[in-house]
């Protein structure tokens, strides 16, 4: 991880690709011979930029359905269904065959199992998405494990074999990837945990781009804790500074990435809740200080906010123009009502699909800054926060 600032050609633009360094040449009168290197051109650069742009298109955002089998099992258990492959397939089929979904959804993130699945009629899920002009994506991290030497914090696994897995996912139709690591405010966060999170995200991003996948960069700052919003701002600024430092060190093309930040809010157990205007003010302040305008899209996670809250906060952030597309990549805040409406019954599929469209449309309007909470159901207002949530 030694500093390699001399190789940071111009990571914020794609012009670094294929440039040859002159550092290998012996300068006249110099007695030191420095190591020669060249940066490798990626054949995918134009495609990455195009993919990122199409995901970050006006009025659209991402449907995240990349719950691991264990997490999907918890969702299914909440409606008394067993965690079988058949039930997971049936649930994902319901979501992915919703007619008209592509009007509001530009990308969908799969867990590996889903990428290789088809509908009961034999149509690949990837093709269901393509027909709606939705880009298929894939969760590539291998989950969180304890970080030795830290304050009960964790680190995210998955770099081993990532290049070959990514190449396979590309062949299967995926065009973007997601890697979620977490930072806990009540646990510090320690400098070690932040550095590890940032370095892992940057290595993953470089490997994804090298294999044609647009990386979603997601250092989730967990909602857990009773801290005020100013403390979240301070931690978020530190985390994103470190993330962009290492993204640049790894020559990641900023035009070909998407971010998935947490909104800047008080801790879930803090005595006061923040209004959408306050959340928007803090979150945009943080992002404007840390995220270059070369990045095409900011796709927020919902992190345990209620469906209505996540939509209201997004809407507040789109009341004036931003340097990037500001949108959503929600899992819980798009799926909660759907799951409750479905209850695992075939006769409820249509109603459940309609409820997905209601949420997708609400968030689409919020992306355009035109959402009103009038007429929202009581269900949509219920919080979904779970302490120490894993994915
Ligand atoms: P939530 O919107 O449920 O926080 O999802 C987070 C996530 O990383 C999904 O891909």
From TrEMBL:
<dbReference type="Pfam" id="PF00274">
    <property type="entry name" value="Glycolytic"/>
</dbReference>
<keyword id="KW-0934">Plastid</keyword>
<comment type="pathway">
    <text>Carbohydrate degradation; glycolysis; D-glyceraldehyde 3-phosphate and glycerone phosphate from D-glucose: step 4/4.</text>
</comment>
<keyword id="KW-0456">Lyase</keyword>
<keyword id="KW-0704">Schiff base</keyword>
<keyword id="KW-0150">Chloroplast</keyword>
<dbReference type="InterPro" id="IPR000741">
    <property type="entry name" value="FBA_I"/>
</dbReference>
<dbReference type="InterPro" id="IPR013785">
    <property type="entry name" value="Aldolase_TIM"/>
</dbReference>
<dbReference type="InterPro" id="IPR029768">
    <property type="entry name" value="Aldolase_I_AS"/>
</dbReference>
<keyword id="KW-0324">Glycolysis</keyword>
<comment type="similarity">
    <text>Belongs to the class I fructose-bisphosphate aldolase family.</text>
</comment>
<dbReference type="GO" id="GO:0004332">
    <property type="term" value="F:fructose-bisphosphate aldolase activity"/>
</dbReference>
<dbReference type="GO" id="GO:0009507">
    <property type="term" value="C:chloroplast"/>
</dbReference>
<dbReference type="GO" id="GO:0006096">
    <property type="term" value="P:glycolytic process"/>
</dbReference>
<protein>
    <recommendedName>
        <fullName>Fructose-bisphosphate aldolase</fullName>
        <ecNumber>4.1.2.13</ecNumber>
    </recommendedName>
</protein>
């Amino acid at each position: 991880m030694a500093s390699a600032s001399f190789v940071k050609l111009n990571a914020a633009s794609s012009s670094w690709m294929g440039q040859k360094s002159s550092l290998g040449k012996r300068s006249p009168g110099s007695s030191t011979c420095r190591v020669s290197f060249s940066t490798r051109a990626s054949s995918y650069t134009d495609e990455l930029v195009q993919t990122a742009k199409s995901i970050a298109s006006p009025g659209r955002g991402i449907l995240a359905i990349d719950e691991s089998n264990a997490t999907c099992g918890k969702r299914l258990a909440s409606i008394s269904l067993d965690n079988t492959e058949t039930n997971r397939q049936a649930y994902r089929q319901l979501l992915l065959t919703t007619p008209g979904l592509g009007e509001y959804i530009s990308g969908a993130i799969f867990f590996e199992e889903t990428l290789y699945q088809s509908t009961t009629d034999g149509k690949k899920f990837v093709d269901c998405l393509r027909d709606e002009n939705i880009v298929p994506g894939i969760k590539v991290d291998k989950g969180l494990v304890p970080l030795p030497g830290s304050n009960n914090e964790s680190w995210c696994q998955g770099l081993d074999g990532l290049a070959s897995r990514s190449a396979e996912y590309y062949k299967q139709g995926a065009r973007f990837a997601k890697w979620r690591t977490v930072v806990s405010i009540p646990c510090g966060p320690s400098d070690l945990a932040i550095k590890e999170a940032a370095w892992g995200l940057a290595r993953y991003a470089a490997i994804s781009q090298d294999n044609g996948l647009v990386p979603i960069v997601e250092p989730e700052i967990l909602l857990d804790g009773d801290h005020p919003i100013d403390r979240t701002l301070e931690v978020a600024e530190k985390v994103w500074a470190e993330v962009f430092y290492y993204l640049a060190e790894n020559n990641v093309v900023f035009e070909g990435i998407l971010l998935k930040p947490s909104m800047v809010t008080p801790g879930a157990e803090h005595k006061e809740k923040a209004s959408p205007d306050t959340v928007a003010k803090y979150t945009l302040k943080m992002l404007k200080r840390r995220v270059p305008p070369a990045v095409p899209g900011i796709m927020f996670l919902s992190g345990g906010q209620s469906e209505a809250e996540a939509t209201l906060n997004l809407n507040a952030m789109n009341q004036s123009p931003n340097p990037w597309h500001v949108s959503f990549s929600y899992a819980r805040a798009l799926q909660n009502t759907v799951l409750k409406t479905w209850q695992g019954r075939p006769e409820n599929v249509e109603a459940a699909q309609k409820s997905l469209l209601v949420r997708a449309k609400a968030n689409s309007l919020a992306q355009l800054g035109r959402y009103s909470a009038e007429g929202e159901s009581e269900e949509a207002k219920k919080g979904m926060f779970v302490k120490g949530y894993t994915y």
